[in-house]
Protein 1
Amino acid sequence: MAAPRVCVPGERLVSTADCESGRGTYVHHGYIYSCLAGYMHKRNLDGKELPIVEVIRQKEDAVPRIGSIVTGKVTSVSGRMCKCAITCVERTTLREPFRGLIRKEDVRATEKDRVEMYKCFRPGDIVLARVLSLGDANCYLLSTAENELGVVLALSEAGAQMVPVSWSDMQCPKTGSKEFRKVAKVQLQQE
Amino acid sequence: MPGDSRRIAGPQDSRAPHWFGRQQETHQEAGGTRQDGRGDHDLRPVYLHTGVVSQATGSAYMEMGQTKVIAAVYGPREISRREEFTMKGRLCCELKFATFSCRQRRQHIQDNQERDGSLIVLQALEPAVCLDKFPKSQVDVYITVLQDDGSALAAAITCAALGLADAGVMMYDVVVGCSVRQCGEDQWLDPSVREEFRPEVESAGDHGMVTVGLLPSLNQVSALVLDGHLQQQTAVQAVKTCISGCQGIYPILKDCLVSSTRRNVPSLEQKSGQTSTDGQNGQT
Amino acid sequence: MSSTLGVLSDAERLFIVHGVQDDLRSDGRACEDYRHVEVETDVVSNTSGSARLRLGNTDILVGVKAEMGEPDPGRPKEGKLEFFVDCSANASPEFEGRGGEELAIEVSNALQRIFNSKSTLDLTALCIIPGGQCWVLFVDVLVLECGGNLFDAVSLAVKAALYNTRIPTVIVTADDEGQQEIELSDDPYDVKRLDVDNVPLIVTLSKIGHRHVVDASWEEELCSLARLTVGVTQKGTIAGLNKEGSGSLDPESIYEMIESGKKVGVVLNSRLKEALEKEENSKREKVGFLG
C-alpha cells in the first residue's frame, strides 16, 4: 500500500465532483481543501455515490458539541442543578476542563418532577452525560436522561468505590450501606 | 510609568553603550549586494521546527537568519473572561519581545510596539482559522521574539501559523509573513535589523517598510502594514515583492509541517487496523 | 471594532451590500463620497491648539498642549510628539472603564504610524537646546461620539489642531560660564506655528461585498470584514498603511484600494486646508463649540 498522503491546511485535495467533504476538510469554489495537517483518507459509505474524503490527525482537539457524550466530575450540587467539570469529550481527554451544568429536569427521562438532586449526584462523582446545548457564556447544558448516562464512578461515605445495584442505588462494599445515585448502565463501547 | 512590582527592574534611564557610539550604517555595500552578501530579492535561510513546547497544544520555532521566534498555542479552552455568548471561537494573540532580544533592553510589560504587533498578528491569523469550529471557546497564541535581527513581525506571523497548524486547530490555510524594505529605488526583501526602517535616520524620497501576511493557497492577504512614505506605485510594487517573498517561504513551511506530521501523528495504517470500516487510503 | 455598537440583521446587511454593489449607499452617497464634515479650530482656550470635528455622527475634540521636556537620547535634535486617545463613555456606554482602551490603542497606533516619518512634521523645529530641552507636543484626542469612520475623523481633527497650534517663542541665552538659559517671550502673540503641509490624513477603505467604500457609517462598518487604513499626504504619497479587521483581501483589490485611497486623500487634504485657511481669515466670534 502506498504511503498515505499527508496534507497541510489550505491544500487542495480533490474536486467536489469526485468526493464529498468529510471531517477536517472544507469546500471552496468547487474543490475540497484540507483544514488540518494530517493524513488524507477516502472512505466509501453504503448508500452514497461518492466517497467521503477526510483529513485525520490524532491530536485533533475536541470541544463539546451538541449531542456529544462527555465525561465530567461533579463539582457542586444544589437543589435545582448540579455543576460539573467536563474532562473528556467522546474519547478525547481535554487538557483543560470545560464547565457543564445538569439541570434538575434533565437528570432522567421519567418522573422529572420528582427528581431530588441530592439523591442523584454528589460532589466528586464521575458522570457520563450528553451535551444538550452550548448553554450560556459560562456552562454547557448537559443531560443524563438516558439509561446509559449518569454516575459511573462514586465513592461512598466510607471512602470506598461503590458498586451499582440498581438504576437508583449504589452500594458500598466496605460497610454495605446503600446510597442514592442516578446510575448509568455502562455499556461496552464498540471500538 | 507603572512598574511591575514583582520584578526588580533595572534603572529606568540606563542606556546600552551602543547608543553613544557611532550610529550603524543602513546602506548597502557598493556593487549591488547587501551587507550579508544577499541579492536584493533574496531571503535569508529559514529554519522551522514544530513541537518545541511540550506543555502546549502546539508550538513552533522559527529562525530567519539571526531572527529567532518561538510560538506556543493553547486551547481551544474555555473563555476566561466574562463575556457574551458567541457561536464563534475567539483567537487571542500576545506578541512579546524578550527583554534581551534587541540592542536596547526591553521592559517586561508589553509596550506599544508589542501591543500593535499583537493586533497585527491576530488580524493576520483570524481569517485563516475556522473560528466556527470551536464555539464559545478560545485559542491562545503566545509569541516570543528571542532575538530580533529584522523582520520579526513577519517571522512572528509565520511562526504563529505553524504553531496553530501543529496544535491541530482547523484552518482554511496557513499564513506566511514577509517584509520588504524600500530605500529610494532599492527594494530589499527580508531586511535584517541594520536594513530595517528607522524613521529617525531617513531623509526625503521613498523610504519605508512593508510587511505582508499571505494565505498562500487561497492567495489572500490577511496582514498588510506599511511604515514610512512611499509613492503609490512603489507601495504596490513593494506589496508584490512581499507576496513573492511569502510564496518563497511557503514550501519550507509546508515541508516542515508534512515531515512533523509524519513524525508525530500515528499513521493511518495502524488506525485502519483498529477500525472495522473498509478503510481505503487515497492517493490522488 | 464597531461590533460593540450594535448588531445588524441579515436583511439589513444584504440591503447595504447590494446598495454598495450599485454605487448607491443607504444615505445616498456614492462609494467614494465623504459625509459632510464640520471643523472648527481654537475651541479650547487652555491649549496651544485645538480643534473639534464632526463627520456625520462622529464627533472628535483634539487638544494640543506644548510642554518642555528632554529629547530622546537617540534623537537629540528633535522635539517629541505624543498621542493619547480617549474613547470616553460619552461616545458609547461600552467604553466605560477600560472598555474603550482597545479601540483607543488602535487609533493611537494608527496615528503613530502616519507620523512615523521624518518628512511628516519637522520635529527639529521643536528643538530648543539640542540634547537638553525640547518641546513635547501632547496631542490628546477625545472621542465624543462614535458614528463610524473614527480613524479618518481623528486624523482630520489632529491635523486641524496642529494647524491651529501656536508654540511660544523662546530665546536661549548663554551666560559667561556657558550655562544656557531659556527665556520665554513676554508677548503672547510672539508665537511659532507648525508646518502641517506634509501631515497625512487617514483614509479608511472598507471592503463591502466586492467593492470598497470610503467613510463608512457604523452600519457599513458592521458589514465589512476587512478595512485598509491608508495615510495620504497632500502630494499623494502613501504614508502608513494597515489592514484591519478579521477578514482578508485579495492582492488585486488592495492595489485598487490604495489607488482610490490616494485619490480621495489628496482631495480631502486640499479641502481641509481650504477650510482651515478660510476659518482663520473669517474672524468670526467664537461662541462655544457645541452651539
Note: Residues 25 and 34 of chain A are 4 Å apart (CA to CA).
Protein 2
Amino acid sequence: MNTRAAALILIIALFAGRHAHAQQLPGNKETIEIGLSTDTIAITSGFRGTDLTVFGALDNADPLIQRQGRYDIVVVLEGPERDFVVRRKDRFFGIWVNAESVSFQHIPASYSLASTRNLQDIATPKIFGQLSLGVNNIFYEPMPDGFGSSESLKEFTKELPRLKLKQRLYNQRPGDVQFLSSTLFRATLSLPANVPVGKHIARAYLFRNGEFLRESSTSLNIVKAGLEFRIYRAANQYSLLYGLFAVFLAVVTGWMGRLVFRKD
Amino acid sequence: MGLGFALGIYLPIAEISVNVFVLFFMGAAVGFLSGMFGVGGGFLITPLLIFYNIPPAVAVATGANQVIASSFSGALTHFKRGTLDVKLGSLLVVGGIAGAGVGIYVFVLLRELGQLDLIVSLLYVVFLSTVGGLMLYESLQAMRRTRAGQLSNLKKPGQHNWVHRLPFKMRFRASKIYVSIIPVLVLGGAIGFLSSIMGVGGGFIMVPAMIYLLKVPTNVVIGTSLYQIVFVTAFTTVMQATTNQSVDIVLAMLLMTGGVIGAQYGARIGQKLRGEQLRALLAMLVLAVGLRLAIELFVTPDDLYSVAVALATRAP
C-alpha cells in the first residue's frame, strides 16, 4: 500500500496589508499569495512519494490580461540546503575508480517546480537567471577549495542538476499551475520518495507579459514519523546507546539460538 | 502483492525498502552454511547485502553486528566444554580492539574520500579468492588422498618455526603453548582491522593462522577464535554506531533471526556429510561470490558520475 502524505492545503486569503503591497509599483496592483493549512507534514516509512497541492490567490488582476492568459505563475518548493560532492569514475588498470570530484555548498537538497507554461514561454532566460529560478538557474556554488580547474568545475556543475533530476529530487512540471478562477490557482508539486526532511520553502513567482512582478513565500516543515524514523533518530542522537543496544540484541539472539539448539 | 509475499519493510539506516522474506532467507541460508561448516558467515553476508543494493557502509557495519549473534552461542558452548583459552583469547582481544580502532579510522577516511565501496570490494575479492582457492586445493588434495586409501590428516607435526624465536614469551596453559605475545597481538590486530573494514568475524583467517603460526591445538582453536570474535565485533559495532551511524538494527535482526534458525539445520546436515566434500563445496561458493564482486569492478557503470552529501570534515 502506498502511504500517501495527506497534505491538506487551504487557501489563506490575506486581505489585510494588500494596499501596502499595491503601492510599490504604480500601475501594478496585482498581489500573489500562497498558503498552506499546515506548517508541518509528517511522512511515514512506506512513503513512496506524493503530490503536494498548493493553492494560491492572485488579486487585483487586470481582467483583460487575465482573459488573454498573459499572467504566469511559477511555484517552487525548495528543500533544505546541504553540501554535496559530485564524483566521476575513471578507469585504472581496468577497474572503475572514483577519481575527480567537485564539492558544492548551500545546494537545495530537493527542488520541485510547477509552472503555468514552459519556462521559456513565460519570460526570457535572463530574467530566470536573475531570479535563480529553475533547475538550470540555481546557483551551484562550489566550495572555495572544492575543485581542481575551472574546466572541471564547469563539467561538474552541469552534472549536478542532471544527477538530481535523475534521482527525482529535482523536478520541473510545466503546466501544473492551473487557474481555477480568475483569482484562484492551484499548483501541483511532486514530493519524491526520498524527499529530505527539514525546512522547505515554497515560493510563488508572478509574471505579467513576460515581466516579473513579485513573489510570495511560505515555509513548510517535512518530518518523518513512525518507528523506523525513531530508530533513525536514535542512531544519530544516541549513537553510543544505540550501538550498545545493537550488541545486546545480537547477544540475546545468539543466546536464544543456543536454547533452541539444546532442545534436540 | 496478492499473496502477501511481497512484504516490504523500510530499513531506517540503509534508507531503502526491502523484502522481509528475502533478507530472512538470506540470513537463514548463510546461517545454514555457517552451521554446516562451522564458520561465522560474515564474509558471505556482507557481499550478499551489497548485491542486494544495501550501501556497503551499512552492509559492513551490520555484518559485524550480525556476527556477534552466531559467535556468542558458539563461544558459550566452547567455554562450558573447556575448549576455550581465555588468556590467549583475551590477548587476541587486546590486539583486536587496537586493530579495529585503526580500522574504523581508515573506514571514515575512505568514506570521506569516496573510495570505501571500492576498497571493500577489492578486499573481498582478494580474501575470498585466496581463501576459496586454498580451501579448494586443500580439499581436492584430501579427496585424492582418501581415494588412494590414505587417512586424511590435517594435523601438522609440532615443528617450531620462526614465530617461536620471538621475545616476550608467555605461557598459555589451556593451549599448552609457550609463545611470544608479539605474533598474538599482531594476529589479533590484523583480524580486528579486517573486522571493522569488511564486517567479518575473521574466523576464516584466524583459525588457520592459530593452527599453523601459533601451533595452538585444534580443539581449543575454534572456541578461542569465537571468543575473540565476539568481543572484537561487539567493539566494532559500537564504534561503527558512534562514528558512522551505519548499524541497521532492523536489518541485523532479520539476518540474525534467519541465521539462528538456519544454523540449526545446517549443523545437522553437516554431521552427515563428508568433510572434504563439504569444504570443496564451501570453497566453490566462496570463489563464486568473489568472482561476482570482481566482475562488478570491471564492468562499465551506467553512470560515471555520482552525487553524495559532502561529509562534515573539510580540508583545513
Note: The two ends of chain A are 41 Å apart (CA to CA).
